[in-house]
Amino acid sequence: MTDYWLSKMFYDLQSAEMTQAWRADRSAVMKDYPLRDDMRQAVLNDDIAAIAPHVNAYLLRFYCAICGMTDAEFIDSLQPLAETATASDG
């Protein structure tokens, strides 16, 4: 299930002004969005595997890019999701 406020925040981060504010102080930006505690903590911890099921994949990829994550790091951060899916298949 997607999280509207998390998706909205990631969408809003596409503006140059918001990207700059995000890079300066994530917590200050997050105060404008009523995020659930678990999602707020996942963002602060850069826990992409926890965030991924709750947002659009394109918004997540953009978010990771503005946070300075390389493609390889992004793919590696999704590995726990692949492991969970594999475990539930067997």
Report what the structure shows.
- There is one protein chain.
- With 90 residues, the chain is mainly α.
- The chain has 8 helices and no strands.
- It is globular.
Question: What's this entry about, in short?
Answer:
70% of the residues lie in helices and 0% in strands. The protein has helices at 4-12, 16-24, 26-30, 37-44, 48-51, 57-66, 71-77, 79-89. The protein starts with a helix and ends with a helix.
List the defining traits of the structure above.
mainly alpha; globular; single chain; 90 residues
Q: Note the main sheet.
A: none
Name the helicity range.
over 70%
- C-alpha Rg (nearest Å): 13 Å
How many helical stretches?
8
Which regions contain 5 or more consecutive residues with pLDDT less than 50? none
**Topology pattern, helix = H, strand = E:** HHHHHHHH
End-to-end separation in angstroms reads 23 Å
DSSP strand count = 0
Strand content: under 5%
Mean pLDDT: 89
Question: What gross morphology would you assign?
Answer: globular
Helix-strand makeup class = mainly alpha
